[in-house]
Design a protein that fits this description.
The structure holds four protein chains of four kinds. By secondary structure, chain A is mainly α. Helices cover about 75% and strands about 5% of the residues of chain A. The two termini of chain A are about 45 Å apart. Chain B is an all-alpha fold. Helices cover about 75% and strands about 0% of the residues of chain B. In chain B, α1 runs antiparallel to α2. By secondary structure, chain C is an all-alpha fold. Chain C is built from seven helices and no strands. Chain C starts with a helix and ends in a 6-residue tail after the last helix. The model of chain D has no long low-confidence stretch (mean pLDDT about 85). By secondary structure, chain D is an all-alpha fold. Chain D has a two-stranded antiparallel sheet with strand order 1-2. The radius of gyration of chain D is 38 Å and the shape is elongated. Classes of the chains: A mainly alpha, B mainly alpha, C mainly alpha, D mainly alpha. At the B-C interface, α1, α2 and α3 of B face α1, α2, α3, α4 and α6 of C.
Chain lengths: ~500, ~100, ~170, ~650
Amino acid sequence: MTSHLLSWITFTPLLGAFLLLCIPKRAHNSIRWIALATTAITAALVGLAFSLFRASEAGFQLVERAVWIPQFGVQYLLGMDGISFPMVVLTALISLMACLGSLTHIRVKGGREKEYYFLFLLLETGMMGTFLALDLFLFYIFWEVVLVPMYFLIGIWGGPRKEYAAIKFFLYTLAGSLFMLIGIVAVYFASSPHTFDMTLLTTMKYGLLFQKVVFLAFFLGFAIKVPVFPFHTWLPDAHVEAPTPISVILAGVLLKMGTYGFLRFSYPLFPDAARWFQPAMGVLAVVGIIYGGFIALAQTDFKKMVAYSSVSHMGFVLLGLAAMNADGFRGALLQMFNHGTITGGLFLLVGVLYDRAHTRDLNDFGGLGAKMPVYAGILTFFSLASLGLPGLSGFISEFLSLLGAYQYSKLITALSAIGILLAAAYLLYMIQRVLLGKLNPKWAALPDMNALELSTLVPLMVFIVAIGLYPKIILEYMIPTLDGLLGTIRGGI
Amino acid sequence: MIIPLPHVLLFSLALFGIGAYGVLTRRNIIGILISIELMLNAAGINLIAFSKTTALAPETGQIFAVFVIAIAAMTATVGLAIVLALYRARKTVFADEVNLLKW
Amino acid sequence: MDILNFGIKVGIYALMAGTLVLAVGVVTLRNLFHSALCLAATLIGTAALYLVFHAEFLAAVQILLYVGAVVTVIIFAIMLTEHIAERSVAQRNRQSLPALLGILVLIAVTGRILLKTPWAVNPATVGARVTVADLGAALMGTYVFPFELVSVILIAALIGAVIVAKKEKSS
Amino acid sequence: MNPDMIYLVPLLPFTAFVVNILLGARFLKHRASWLSIATSAAACAIALPICFAVFKGGHFAGEFSWLPVGGGTLRFGYLIDPLSASLLFMVTIVGTLIQIYASGYMAGDPRYSRFFAYVSLFMAAMLTLVISNNFILFFMAWEIMGLCSYLLIGFYFERESAAKACFKAFLTTRVGDVGFLIGMLTLFTALGTLNFSEINGALAHGSARAAVPASLLVMSALFMFCGTVGKSAQFPLHVWLPDAMEGPTPVSALIHAATMVAAGVFLVARAFVIFMAVPETMPVVTAIGCFTAFMAAFIALTQTDIKRILAYSTISQLGYMVTALGMQGLGAGTFHLITHAFFKALLFLGAGSVIHGTHVQDIRQMGGLFRKMPHTAITFIIASLALAGIPPLSGFWSKDEILLTAFASGNIVVFWVLTLSAFMTAFYMFRLVFMTFFGKARDPHVHAHESPAVMTLPLWCLAIGSVVLGFPGSPFMHHWFQRFLAHAVPHPEYHPSAFVMSCSVIAAVSGIALAGIIYLKNVHWAEAVAKAFRPLYQLSLNKFYVDEIYSRFVIRPFLALGRVLFHFDATVIDGAVNGAGTGSMWLGAVKNWFDKNIVDGLVNFVGAFTCFLNSVVKRLQTGLVQNYLLIAFLGFLVFIIRELKLI
């Protein structure tokens, strides 16, 4: 099993999905248990990978290689390094939590559980594959595999405007990935011998103009996924309409695929272009941070507020990437992980409230702190983590991003710091409207959180506190690879 | 043979023609069935006539005439069952009122 | 002898003519009950013709089966549906003229062929007498397969008729 | 004694926090306070020997690796030097006393255990801040204190005013914190370290200092000072502190008087070497501190809420400290910080006792409480005298030190402004005292009673502290405290001046006398003055209109900007996306028309022609079985006629 561990991690959800197809539609309990067990087994396999992964090494580990389409040099090539490892852990964790969250939520939404969990598990395979694939062709396939189940998950189980949101999400992302496909093909033909193999492609050099053009093509694909400022409008719609567990996946994992793409492909393949685009990325990052923050401030819809806060927080990832130094990269990668846990948790909390009150209008709540003390405590916890309270994980990554960015540009950093202020403003404003003040008598009968809901949030909280208090536990897995990447980029000077 | 074979054949031909005319013109399905019986009889007469004159084995024609009678009985029973079913469903026994099978 | 022969011949021709007249009545009478009666008479006429050809067994079968069973069934059916077949209702459809013309052409054409064809009459056959025993041996011997087939078809027809005619469960 | 034991000092209250927040509501209930007090007392017991060791000249430090940054790592640890020892001493004692008091004050509150959980977390954070050896840990603790402040101000969150106040407090201090963060980043960029001793090492000597770009240092010093402005409620970020009085009174005493707000001053003291390295930043500090001291005292003159008066008084006194630090008076500022912590905590606790006894907060409803609440009244008056600066109470010595610093360093304007503020301080404090404890009871509905011993005992303890703590810095002990601090950071010292002392005493006494005349003899001068100087009176009453200015020029524009950007997002950016969609749809429509009319037309023609043929041919399809039979029959006839060549 360990010799093909990464394949197992990638395809265990798919096996579970096919197993689900053999279960009768009405056997709801079996369906739920199989889905849950599959995500749990996948998480356990990731745990096994954790024990095998050697933190101090920079290169790819647990590599699997097989010839797939020899005519085009396409390989089945999986591997894990310090960049993909946190993302795989995050995917397993968030998937497990989202699956737990689905247990009640999808039942409430009224059935079709078999289809739901089938698509859910298919999605997990896609995400795992995206983070593990080292062959550009394979990567593109997994990237697109993610898209389809997501479309259906939003379009079938979503809110009132689900069709619009699903189509928008699909078209947006597809448009981006087409540019990426062009980029991939361009890289293939520019390499000699023609190959899609990442381990070989990074050793090759391309002309600056070629780099710029292809970097831009990749950038469009990734930037839409992140989303970077002008390409972000799919995000609020998709988030608001998607069912809670899918919002969690969307925010927790899918957004990271974009920034992961930057680290995995754009930077090592086109280091010169990356430096050329550095100012632009910095500016986009800071615009995203401030812009997202301001818009989040104006929201009255709880979920939309969290969605726009994602735009702002992902800006910090981009900021760290734009810094192109050790601190920036560490901050960016850590922020990717932390944003997944924190915003995932926030979406789960929105879902908890929505399941009870059937509204997300912030102005409609008030005084829930007295009625639901556990919920209030956990919501405050996640909000504080999101606004970057020291001692919780969000602070570390934002600090590292800012520290990195400061060495690149003082102005950009100072402006980004306004984003921290805005985060505090919109999150506390939310808390004030939801938890504090007089209790709206409408909500006098709301029950507090149950054990299942707690079980989806407590593991995330453990990660948040652990990383917040002692970030080395996860940073030491990232640092060798990131330093190696930095060496690659600098080597091009 | 007391009378020449062609005369018998002409008789059966006439009987067949009369039956065919009935099949083509009777509105009542039972009438059509009756006419079919006539046509089958004509066939039986032919068989007998040939078995008495031109056949190599004299009993062949008679045996097939027996078969024809059996078939005729079946035709009558099944046909009449259909008529009854039709009558129950459509309250009619007229063939030209059963025209669902058209454009 | 000639006179006797002549007389028999005249009788046979008269029988054939009468049978034809009755047959015409079968297809033209307005009252279906009458035409059924005519059919019975026609069938008896045919049976008589069978006797002329020395097919006594067949004549008996004709009368027993046809006249006794089939015609009875037909009369039952007529009675069950009678109030439809009223006098006032037209009993013939609008294609009687083309049908008549067509049939006359058929008779003319086929009759001409019949008359022109040099029939090879087998004298041995003409002289042979077929007994009921011969028929039974042939049925159980040479023709056992068609015989069994017919019996199966008869059973199928019987079951089919019952199913088709059976009253549907009130739906 | 192992100095690493110092880690336990913040860890013990933190344990209390964890236990209380998880188990308190269900299992501990009213026993929650015991745990908090016990851990706090234990921290005190561990900290005090270490403090005394430092007072005798000791110096402790220790650290461990925490966060990998750049090429190296950030190391966390503790640093117990004279500065932190002084604060450690003050925080553990005052904190423990206030918690004892709170166990009585909060008795019967439905969220009793939650209160003590928050207070324990605060204690843990404050103690971490005090003993931390670098700016990152300092900042983390600083932010967690802000969180505790937020949670405790909003403790009675069912009240709209409390909900608004905690939001305002957190956000306002956060503005300063962002500045602090940027300052820290700048400092790290300039020096490559955030460790206090390493910063001292880098900046203490001229040669090393010359290697560091001065512009970065100026930037870092000023940005860090933003943190102080926010946390210590200096102008223009002082607006949150008066509103913070929505919290329970022990919290006001602990967080918003004695410790957390003093952390801002402590930050300047910690970063003193940086300010000293770039002295051009000092006037900014002085100006802000001095203006705050004056403005807050001026506002306090007209306030009527007992806690708000004390809040403005706190702002004013913090202004004194900041001013002192701005004039390089590290000793004076820190000295005032310590003494102020004791008597201001005492004042708040006394006010809490009054509120607890009377259930009102407006001093116009009080009066004649001296008889009914003697312990509270006596300790309150002691603290007021200390604050007003009456010798030989502690406040006199520390305030005198600040005035001396101003006078001797040549900042004459500052000196006179501060003296005027001292006069106003004495006046508003005794206005408060006289209206509350003397005269006749003004509101017959108020039935006052003395608070229980668990509350009055801490009052007396703090009163003793308020009396005696001035002596270590007084000439009687040869300014031991100032010299003690000078061990850590060298800074100028001045000889005592009789002129300064007499000015200070005259200001205090005249302020008290004026208050006595107006509020004991009921002379209606106050109204006359208010009428004569109406604009000034309005200015004071409306707190310099700072809140209104913020509301109009900061908050509303921000919210409006948010809405405008949201609109922009929905119409322009999303509109562009939807426009692209609509464009393709339009293109689709054109193509659709072509398809429908040209391409489809051809297809449709074929179809229509077929239909036409059909309409002709279909007539054969009568559905009449006899019809078909006839046709078949006729066809058969034709066939045989043709086949037999009959025609």
